[in-house]
Design goal:
33% helix, four-stranded antiparallel sheet, globular, alpha+beta, 281 residues, 7 helices
């Protein structure tokens, strides 16, 4: 799980080439700055050696995602099993390799069907998609009696929380599962690169009518200026009137298989507003 307490970015230039990179550290900002410069130097050296500034498109630079940590969640031995971070547009996100989250995005709503469509019993595309998605999930669960999932409705689709099995975010089994369940491809790619499954816990600001993004520092959550403080205050106040998802079904063996799983489910549900009978955003 690639989350860290301190983040820094370094830019290096040499021989007409330049490269920038993020560095992270659990110990200090200075250590993060050192790691950032070392990564940028390594990237620049590879460019110069290969004489190709587009080499690999530097996908590995995306493996680290600078997000301030709001809360660490640890097991009985004190090992981090999850972290709640703040993403680039201000929303809280649960990051964990212990629970598999799968995001399913529905297509944009289609216009209301005409007279012929109503006579033929035609349903909106989102409703059809919802049924097809759940059918795929049930087929997956029926292949193994130990498989299970909690199904949540979101503002734009479905979220699956798999209670079993445990899978590695960057494993091939996970890639096949994401494809089998028709997960959002961008979400699947992000989990693989980040080494963590991610679940947004607070609403998207623009769905609340809040524009702009906060300017947060990466080594701490404290806002850097009055405008950011106001933005966060307005966003948090508005967020209390909405939930991120609602539990709508449980498929297969959906009961948690261990204490850590049960705890993470409880954290997710509490922060995401599950069971609070609020509109989704």
């Amino acid at each position: 799980m690639r989350v860290a307490r301190y983040w820094a970015r370094a830019q290096v230039e040499r021989d007409g080439y330049g490269r920038g990179a993020w560095g992270s550290s659990e110990t200090s900002l200075q250590d993060a700055e050192h790691n950032a410069r070392a990564r940028a130097e390594a990237m620049l050296a590879e460019v110069i050696d290969q004489d190709d500034s587009s080499l690999h498109h530097y996908e590995y630079q995306r493996h680290d995602m600078p997000e301030p940590i709001v809360q660490d969640i640890v097991d009985r031995e004190g090992n981090r099993i999850a972290a709640i971070t703040t993403n680039r547009y201000g929303a809280s996100v649960l990051n964990t390799a212990r629970l598999v989250f799968v995001d399913i995005d529905f297509p944009e709503p289609s216009p209301p069907p005409g007279l012929l469509g109503r006579l033929l019993g035609r349903k909106p595309a989102a409703e059809d998609f919802h049924g097809a998605a759940l059918s795929r999930l049930r087929d997956w669960a029926s292949d193994d009696p130990n498989r299970g999932a909690r199904v949540y409705k979101t503002a734009a689709g479905l979220r699956y929380l798999l209670t079993h099995p445990m899978l590695s975010p960057d494993g091939e089994d996970t890639a096949h599962l994401m494809a089998e369940l028709s997960a959002d491809p961008l979400y699947a790619r992000l989990c693989r690169a980040q080494g963590s499954f991610r679940a947004r816990l607070s609403p998207k600001p623009w769905r609340l009518g809040i524009r702009g993004t906060p300017k947060l520092t990466y080594e701490k959550l404290e806002p850097a200026d009055d405008a950011t403080r106001k933005w966060l205050h307005d966003y948090r106040q508005a967020s209390q009137r909405y939930a991120v998802c609602a539990l709508v079904d449980q498929v297969g063996h959906a009961r948690p298989t261990d204490d850590d799983t049960a705890r993470l489910i409880a954290v997710h549900d509490e922060h995401a507003g599950v069971g609070k009978d609020l509109p989704l955003a």
